[in-house]
């Protein structure tokens, strides 16, 4: 058991997750309660077209550790995470996807890495040598290609920017968030570029990833948009010196 006197704020962006949001939150609550961690879980409904918000609010109406907020229209995962951080009051902030591809028990792995490596940020990494990955080969190809692109353009001291589980000290996000521009596709990259430039220490932890959905959500237009967002970060970083 990983003991902590710190409070965890778990930010979960949700878009059309009426079927999955309750299992995700329940598994997260179970992990944190078993570890006896002070915590809050922040669900941000990112302009869903289904009943994500009503399902969550009905189920957690009497649970003061679950905060639920929404806006419309859909603004993208990056915007949802920034919005959710505005509700966070914990010493440690976790960004986590709602799909349970990454089980929330791995939050404790990231926290132990934060302690062991004296890190300010710990990110789950598919490319860590101890990671166990089970997801479609198409995604592996895209992930590997994006890694080499990011390594070439930015020289970040990490091998994976996109895995949907990250742990931050609150003060790191407080410094980094005001500089962020991207709302959607390359939000994770922009955040990590900014954090690295501010001199904070980033560590990578192994991850156990099982692809839960029957079909992926990545379309050719998404690949194009990731490319455009990445180039925008490159332009702001090296040409405008915006993050300095």
Descriptive account of the structure:
This protein is an alpha/beta fold. It has one domain (7-239): Spore Coat Polysaccharide Biosynthesis Protein SpsA, Chain A. The chain contains eight helices and nine strands. The chain has helices spanning 21-34, 52-59, 77-85, 106-116, 137-154, 170-176, 187-197, 220-239, and strands at residues 7-14, 38-46, 66-71, 92-96, 121-125, 132-134, 165-169, 202-206, 208-210. Strands 3-2-1-4-7-5-8 form a seven-stranded mixed beta sheet, with helices on both faces. A two-stranded parallel sheet has the order 6-9. The radius of gyration is 17 Å and the shape is globular. The N and C termini lie far apart (40 Å). 38% of the residues are buried. The model has no long low-confidence stretch (mean pLDDT 92).
List the topology elements.
Elements: E1 7-14, H1 21-34, E2 38-46, H2 52-59, E3 66-71, H3 77-85, E4 92-96, H4 106-116, E5 121-125, E6 132-134, H5 137-154, E7 165-169, H6 170-176, H7 187-197, E8 202-206, E9 208-210, H8 220-239
Parallel strand pairs: 1-2, 1-4, 2-3, 5-8, 6-9
Antiparallel strand pairs: 4-7, 5-7
């Amino acid at each position: 058991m990983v003991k902590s006197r710190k409070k965890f704020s778990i930010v979960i962006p949700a878009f059309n997750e009426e079927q999955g949001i309750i299992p995700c939150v329940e598994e997260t609550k179970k992990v944190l309660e078993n570890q006896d961690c002070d915590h809050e879980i922040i669900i941000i409904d990112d302009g869903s077209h289904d009943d994500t918000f009503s399902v969550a609010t009905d189920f957690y109406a009497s649970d003061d550790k679950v905060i639920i907020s929404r806006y419309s229209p859909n603004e993208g995962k990056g915007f949802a995470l920034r919005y959710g951080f505005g509700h966070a009051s914990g010493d440690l902030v976790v960004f986590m996807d709602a799909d349970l591809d990454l089980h929330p028990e791995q939050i404790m792995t990231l926290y132990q890495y934060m302690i062991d490596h004296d890190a300010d940020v710990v990110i789950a990494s598919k490319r860590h040598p101890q990671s166990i990955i089970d997801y479609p080969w198409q995604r592996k190809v895209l992930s590997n290609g994006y890694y080499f692109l990011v390594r070439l353009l930015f020289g970040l001291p990490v091998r994976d920017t996109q895995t949907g589980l990250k742990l931050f000290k609150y003060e790191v996000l407080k410094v980094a968030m005001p500089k962020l521009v991207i709302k959607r596709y390359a939000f994770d990259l922009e955040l990590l570029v900014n954090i690295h430039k501010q001199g904070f220490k980033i560590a990578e932890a192994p991850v156990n990833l099982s692809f839960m959905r029957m079909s992926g959500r990545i379309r050719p237009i998404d690949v194009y948009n990731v490319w455009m967002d990445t180039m925008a970060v490159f332009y702001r970083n090296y040409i405008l010196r915006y993050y300095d």
